[in-house]
Amino acid sequence: MLRTCFPYRQPFPNKKHVWENPKFKRPCCLKLHFFVWALIPAFIFLWPQAVKSQPISLNEAIKLALENNFKLQIARNNLQTATINNHPGEAGRLPVVGLQTGTSAVVNSISQKFNNGSEINRAGALSSNTQFSLFSSWTLFDGCKMYATGQRLKEQVVAADLVLTEEMLQTTINVATQYLNLIKQYQLLKNIDTLIAISNERLLLNKTRFESGLSAKMDYLQAQTDVNAQTAQKLVQLNSIEQTKENLNLLMGRNAGTPLEISERSFPENAWILPNELDLDKHPTIKQAKTQIGIAQLQKQEIEAAKYPTVDLEAAYNFSFNKSQAGFSLYNLSTGPVVGVNLNWTLFNGGKLKRALAVNEIGIENLRTTLAQTEQLLDAQWVEAQRTLVFARQLADLEKQNLNVATENMFIALERLRSGIANSLELRETQQSYEQTLVRQTEALFQMKLSELNLLYLKGELIIQE
Predict the structure, then answer these.
(1) Domain segments of the chain: what residues?
(2) Residue 60 CB partners (closer than 8 Å, separation 6+)
(3) Measuring CA to CA, which residue among 302, 37, 347, 313 is closest to residue 152?
(4) What interhelical angle do 217-251 and 424-459 show, nearest 10?
(5) What SS3 state is found at 88?
(6) Mean pLDDT across the stretch 342-352?
(7) What are phi and psi of 277, to 5 degrees?
(8) Is the pLDDT assigned to residue 422 strictly greater than 90?
């Protein structure tokens, strides 16, 4: 008999199904089969929880943004376009080779009479003409315009690369700022949880005192109201966290609803090496401004090239075949190469060249003015950023001390309420002071980290280190 883990499929001599026997026990493999099928819905329900993304660090978030950010993708495409255009053929330094061919046929009626008395009368005479030409043109001299154009194309590659660097710098600080903001939101959530725990303890104490007749019901109800208010505040804070995650996902080039967790829940201490001085010559924005000035000067050379003649070398190989059914010549075949030199020189064009040079000079002057303004602005921002960082650190230290004092004061107030020395109003005021201190301390740390980021950004070397 064939063995199987499903015995109800086997033929039985008495034609009685085995499961109809009350003494029948299902084999273990059948029970396992039903157990697996029962787990499928639970597996489907729990699968999204199992595939949640692993917590990412700040470095990982920046790396994802540099790989996937849409603005960076556009900047990379522009750099690739500039690299492709950086070619001698685009500058006009290579010859142009072309091919031209054509054929035509004409049917004519010819009637001719010559002075010797002879006549030609022909109706429906067919004439055909076939031409073929392989030609080439090479500019030998154009006032050095081709060399200026070639150098300009190289500078445009440098400019596109600097634009990409600036976009990477901006993306990095945007991601770092949003990441720190998410840490701040988690810190605020932690503060709310701490306050809820204190409020619950105050609620329990007031309830006990009210039930024992030691305090009024109003204190108990006020404590309950505070717990509810802080619970509502927690819901609002959870929504702020999700919104910040969505913004961070967008900066990283991901869908806003992608699950996201961060590995840091507190502000990093001494995580970055801060610069001591600002080197404007190495800043990408200054480099970009100087590159644009260089490009404008090369464009001036291209314009000035129109003052000089253009010399072109022309070469071709021609083939021509004419055939006619009437006339003196029945066919004519001509083939052979052609070589020549052409010189073109524009002596006067209505002053267009002079006006173009004047406009170019104004553009260069504007670029130089913009460069000076940018250098002054960066220097002022650097001084301000250093001063802001000093005050931010002092404020963070002060708020840390305030938090220690407020924490100790909070526990003293709780003990006084437990001992019956203080009333509920005193504890509530102490709790509110503690809450304000928590918020100020979190905001002070956040602003200090933003000031450090700003220094790195102004330096132009925003490198996040492990």
Answers:
(1) 7-41, 58-93+145-307+351-459, 95-141+310-344
(2) none
(3) 302
(4) 10
(5) coil
(6) 90
(7) -145, 160
(8) no
* Cα(274)–Cα(455) distance, integer angstroms: 7
pTM of the entire predicted model:
0.78
Residue among 455, 433, 416, 423 at smallest CA distance from 222 = 423
Residue with tokens 């100790």: 408
pLDDT tens digits, one per residue of 83-104: 999 999 999 899 999 999 998 8
d(CA 403, CA 338) in angstroms, rounded, equals 93
Farthest-apart Cα atoms in the chain, separation? 150
Q: Find where tokens 């505040």 sit.
A: 233
**Phi, psi (rounded to 5 degrees) for 105:** -140, 140
CATH number of 58-93+145-307+351-459: 1.20.1600.10
Give residue 330's pLDDT band: very low, low, confident or very high (50, 70, 90): confident
Sorted by sequence, the CB contacts under 8 Å of residue 23 that are 6+ apart come out as none
| Cβ(112)–Cβ(119) below 8 Å | yes
- Mean pLDDT over 214-223 rounds to 80
Portion of the chain with pLDDT greater than 70, in percent:
86
Determine phi and psi for 359, rounding to 5 degrees.
-65, -40
**What are 118's two structure tokens?**
């002879």
- Strand, helix or coil for residue 94: coil
User: Residue with structure tokens 């201490």?
Assistant: 269
Reading the block at residue 331, the tokens are 């066919």
The pair of three-digit structure tokens given for residue 20, joined into one six-digit string? 């109809």
Distance CA 198, CA 189 (A): 14
Q: How far apart are CA 146 and CA 152, in angstroms?
A: 10
